[in-house]
Automatic annotation (TrEMBL):
Family note: Belongs to the aldehyde dehydrogenase family.
Protein name, as recorded: aldehyde dehydrogenase (NAD(+))
Species whose genome carries this gene: Mycolicibacterium diernhoferi
Aldehyde dehydrogenase domain: residues covered: 5-460
PROSITE patterns, sorted: ALDEHYDE_DEHYDR_CYS (PS00070), ALDEHYDE_DEHYDR_GLU (PS00687)
Presence of the UniProt keyword Oxidoreductase in the record: yes
Keywords assigned: Oxidoreductase
Amino acid sequence: MDQVLELVSPHTEELLAEVPVSTPEQIDSAVATARAAVDSGPWPLLDPTERIAVIRRFLDAYQARGGEVAELITAEIGAPISFAKRAQVGLPTAMIGAFCATAQAYPWHETRPGFFGSDIHIRREPVGVVAAIVPWNMPQFLTIAKVVPALLAGCAVIVKPSPETSLDATLLVEMLNEAGLPPGVLSVLPGGVSVGERLVGHPGVDKVSFTGSTAAGKAVAAACATNLTKVSLELGGKSAAIVLDDAAPAAVAAGVRSASLSNSGQICNALTRILVPAARQQEFVDALAAELDGITLGDPTDPGTQMGPLVSRRQQQRVLDYIRIGQAEGARLVTGGDGLPDGIDRGYYVRPTLFADADNSMRIAREEIFGPVLTVIGYRDAADAVAIANDSDYGLAGSVWTADTTRGLGVAAQIKTGTFGVNQGYTMDPFAPFGGVKGSGYGRELGREGLEGYLDTKSIAVTSGV
């Protein structure tokens, strides 16, 4: 019998489905079919407006089935249904329309006067076969952020979803193919690490777009180097919220809760280091604790639930281990900690947890926990806050909270991250590029830059007939 993935409900701990793992032969076949689609098929040769029309048909189908997609994600990863509808499906819906608008206005061809007198024709052409490696935490958002711009560029795409979210990935690919993609342009390969490794290292792949941990990203980059395969990496984060001395504690606490604990804290750009003026630390700690204690945990299918379980027992154990590490390191546990929430006797739940009196050298301040754990760190002055925020291996996102937005923009300019928010967590605007620096990777998704990541630029010098 072929190997299968067992998908388990993080809320009930019961089996949801079994999905066959892609075999090496199926991986090779998918790459060969995609290769034929870009080397001799019609898709890359279509006028961009024709590709846009296909994606707009997909958008219609996606909107019609959005409720079904949201329910599937809630079942797979335990995201509250309200969050699944708003973010897991609502954000991707906005992105599809934004990418179509970006592609419609994009200068696919242009002519420039050359320095030596010849006209220079600039063509943007599809990079070729794309392997899209997607994690489980925001599966539709992250898949669409890769697949839609790649298709609009004229590429063929092979999606390798996370094992936990194979079902919604398969549904997404089905909807796209039904929108009118030629055969072989888009496929999905369920499986674990071995499937991803074979796909990433395949000589028939022209580009890898990977989202995941920094450790896995380094392995992907090394594998791509062997074949000089293009690669973009959106990796981990340990983002800081810099709270200036003129900020209101209640407003900051509400904003940080939204930016940090959505999806049970399982978001790469979560604000997990909360930097506050040392002299006012207790005010902000009290406000944050009140916000965390007010979160409703429980059945993710209940519209009143604000936080569901973590995705798996392994992830639950990882987060609980970090909570114990924080206590052992000497940080003060303010609220949360070990043990299931009241009234819950099963499922991979972790209570929203807040540490205070922490130091930026602690592991809970330096390592990505990927769960509902916040760490408050005091600072002396604004320069010290900037130094602490930048003292990280990561550089994905961050924020500053202040009554003076001009002052906030001045702080934003000093932080070494790819994205940043003033009085908000980063909003993932579909018209703006998203990505990191340092250990958070390279390359950008979303916006015009997200489309250009799937294009090669060709220059053609032209001299009049001789």
